[in-house]
Amino acid sequence: MKIMIIKIISMLVLLLCVNPVVLAKEVTMVSVFDVKQEKVVKVIPLTPELNDSVLQLLQSSPTIYGGFGVNPTSGIVLHIPFPKPVRIPHECYPHPIKEVYLFLAQGTKPLALLFLDNNRQNIVELDYDVQKKPIIPWIKE
Question: What is the number of alpha carbons within 13 Å of residue 103 lying toward its C-beta?
Answer without folding.
Answer: 20
